[in-house]
């Protein structure tokens, strides 16, 4: 239906010379990863182009964009693209500009001449360190993404871009003549906001003036401190921890529409007080929470279980947490985590006890479907987890649980993955289990009560167990291998009971 206006060139179509229509009628053109250098002169003949996407293409140095004056959308993700920057401002009608994953080191100083520009995507431009001052004059700008770039300062006056709806990778800088955190106050229409470098904020009063709580349309909030490498090696003083705790307390978002919350590389000993009960109950729309690299936090908030709409909770790299008590999954006003479907705990290397008894009066996580535990020292899965999840929990992944000895009584689970659990000896009570993957579990002796098992992978040889008689057949090896060789590859003491 669109063949006269839109055209897509795939990577196996090397020569575009004979592919493009001769009448130069194409308005939208996408070229992906051609093996040879692009025939730029052929592209320039497409005078009606409104959309141009060049993905992974080889672009000849010295070419320019001046012949594409009618473009509204330009998306270039070709690694070597820096020389194209100088001619970008020739595209006066451009609305959408993306140089993501390229080697550009700058934007044109006269970018303000592109007065219709609404969308700038600069993700993973690692050589980009600074934005031109005139970017503050782009009155129509609605989207700016700096994630993965090395931009660590914003021009003063950035808060004047009051039409912004999405801002990703905003760097906090407190010294010098740069935009500071307070300038976010004026951006009241923001729906998506990602802030990095929050360790630079000098105190809670500065954070308060950003007025994050006044952004009633905010749906996505990402709060982040140090860059990854800096955070790994940095020593944190108690005074610094107290300051960052006070700063994050003042960055409380409006609960009106917030759906996604990320807190990463946070070095406070406690998490923000607005995640505690009863304040957390006000987040009626919150569906997804991720806490990553909260390395100094020793306790999880008791407010999570009271967020009624929460569907996904991820907690990663939290080595200081040793004990998760009943307060985490207890809610006196009804079911705790009533709509939680996905729960991921990863890199909690100090976690030894999950206190959740089977006789708990409060049902917790009744809708849970997916559970992943990785790198912790739990000797067992809590009885309450099994007793409250006889109907919905379908997938469990257990990775690097170095002290785990058994997995049992999960009758609703249909898929189980167990990797690198050196002390695991038995798995049972899995009556609906259809697929199981087992790797690096040298002490595993018994797998029983798996009446519905269809497929099993052991170690890296990928043996498949199929049919009513649980016959072992090679899945990854050639079928010509003699059947009498198969049992020698199975763990010597493993018993499969159906």
Description of the molecule:
This protein has 498 residues and is mostly beta strands. It has five helices and 27 strands. Strand 17, helix 5 (383-387) and strand 18 (395-401) form a beta-alpha-beta unit. Residues 49-407 form the Disease resistance R13L4/SHOC-2-like LRR domain. Pfam families: LRR_14 (PF23598). This is Disease resistance R13L4/SHOC-2-like LRR domain-containing protein. Keywords: Leucine-rich repeat, Repeat.
Question: Key features?
Answer:
mainly beta, 19-stranded parallel β-sheet, globular
Shape: globular
Detail the poorly predicted runs.
460-492
* Cα separation of the termini: 55 Å
- Number of helix segments? 5
Beta-strand residue percentage: 15-25%
Can you give the helix content as a percent range? Answer: under 10%
Largest sheet: 19 strands, parallel
- Broad structural category: mainly beta
Counting DSSP E segments of at least 2 residues, the number of strands comes to 27
The oligomeric state is single chain
Radius of gyration: 28 Å
Mean pLDDT across the residues is 86
Pfam families: LRR_14
Keywords: Leucine-rich repeat, Repeat
Protein name: Disease resistance R13L4/SHOC-2-like LRR domain-containing protein
InterPro entries: Leu-rich_rpt_typical-subtyp, LRR_dom_sf, LRR_R13L4/SHOC2-like
